[in-house]
Amino acid sequence: MVTPVNPPRLDRTSPPRPPDAFRRPVAALPEGVRVRVLRLVHGDPRAAVELAARMTDRQTTGLDPLPAEPVDLAPEILRAHRREVRALPDDTRLLLLLAAADQYPVATHAFLRAVAAARLDTRPLEAAEASGVAYATAGGVGFRDAWTRIAAYETAVPADRRDAHRLLARVLHGPAETPRRSWHRSAGALGPSGRLAAELTAAAAQARAADDPALSGALAERAAALCTDPREQSRRHAEAAADAWHSGDGDRSRALAARTDADALTGLLALRTGHAGEAFDALLAGATRATQAQDTGGDDAAAARVLARAAEPAAPVGHLLARAAEAAVYTGDLRRCREAAVLARQSGIDPPGVLGALAAAVDGRYEDARDLLEATAGRCGPGGDPTLLVHAGIAALMLGDHTRAATATVRAAAAARARGVTPAVSQALEFRAYADFWTGRPRAAEAAALDALRQAYATGQDNGACHLQAALAMFAALTGEAELCRERATAARSYAVAHGLGLPAALAQWALAFLDLGFGRYDAAATRLRALANSGPGHGHRAIRHLATPHYVEAAARTGDTRIARAAHADYDRWARAVDSPDDLALSARCRALLTPGEDSLAHYRTALDLHADGTRAFERARTELLFGSALRRLRRRTEARDRLHSALEAFESFDAPHCVEGARAELRALGAPAASTRAGERPTTHLTAQQLLVARLAADGATNREIAARLALSPRTIDHHLRGVFTRLGIRSRIELVRLLADGD
Asked: Which residue in 11, 394, 403, 570 has the fewest CB atoms around it within 10 Å?
């Protein structure tokens, strides 16, 4: 006897809890695990506490996937709900079963048709309404909560469940309803059936073509349960795991992937949740096996087809190589780039542009790298493949074309949403944040990164979350939030080094150096950036080291140790000239000014500002004006120095960078010029970051720190830090003042 999807285990007893079962609060779990726990238990805090008490040590750290079946999540909650359902009359329970089968775990919207076909009386639903278990709606039945719906389904005996599914299958007609009809037909089956498994496989392909990965995954998983051939069962599990990943259910995807031997899946999951170096090796092996198994339909070929979501015969292999390129980008290991490029050529596929460009750049072939990046960045039209659009955004960022990078990443997120590829949305926003940051929109960048961070945690993408934490550390460095910057950078770097993620590790190190630079700690900044330059794969990243060159030159010039800085600038200048980016050329001219003594430096500063006028990196333009103004002051060119410093002051105020504002004011004071704020009459909340403003409004509404933390999926300690920052920036000391100030501002 086979039940629809979740075998009833009504007689199963819960395993004995450890002595400290209820000493592990949900808030103590790592942020990503805590978000997924709350998602799995449908936001029920009681169920979350119960699940946290039952998790293994590996599950609490995110190493193992969380349970997938309701009885494994919160058996006590489920038991209590079952008792409520059992207390209802038989005919009421029958209607609730039919409604639950229509909604869980696949929504089919056929309840009213089934009631009419079976000529059922709906008046017994009044007993469910009276008890508060469920209520009638225009479309059928609404349950009090998800756990009640699950209990209504699982309380019924298997024979009644099968009858309910068969009835629902009979009333589903038409081509568009074929997948859901197949689902109910399979749920009414008594045992394994090759014929039903084949029908489900075809239905899953139809749902996949309609960009409904949640439905196709459920159908593929059910097909695997009904398969009689072990090899075919493994392939269906591979497809179901890939679909579960696309739908954003990382835990179920990992659990299903464990039942297969698909390197493609192992590599994809490791890329977003495991060790990036291992991800690359698995993806390369998966691409090799998929190439060999194009016609035989092995696990890797099946998984690659689902992951690629494309029709061209070579697309799955190309997609896996594109993913391998991402792994190489995250690790910063250029040796792996060459390996993937060789395999691509052997497979008759052009190597992914970002991968080939990195390999060319490390060999010093900057013009070749530029051409590859230009070709990749040019593929940013609307409606394309989300992965390829993300690559277009990365390529545009490397070229210094932030406008095109923003376009590509926005379109990648839109395409991912349209195709139902949930994880790709947060990945696109990872790189969108860079474009917003560099073009002088730090608040937009922070808001996008925080949104992406929540999505990354919810979908089990802890590696992506690490990258976003490092990016948020950089934003905190820009706004001078030293404690928050260090907290985020330390967390990101610790995780990144453990998982071979050279990109976020390097970005976190750069953020700390940027913070030191903003506060005038030039020796510390130079030391950090020199260490970054010497960090190998998994600990550092060539691209970040290159991007940080202008900051290293500034720190080195301030400390007088310019020998290494001159060599670094020469390489940076070669790249800037190759890509012909106004921003890169402007920063190269600024470096040349910093490395040139006396009045000869002024011409280079003027060249830099002329180039900045055609670029988009507004914050770096402000830094150039500050450095230019400082140089003019030292050369006693007071009038021009005052103009430059006031311009820098105004820009830093608009970027909400108070420590940089103070640096500009200090220069003006040294000049003997007034350094008052240039933004009179503005609202006080303008000085708050996007996250601070959100926390402030929730606090003003009366929420406690713990309540705010739960709502924003952050720790209470982080909320406390944000509130202290809010009080400092607004010049207040209590929540009462905060309520009054926000009311006045509104």
From this structure: 11
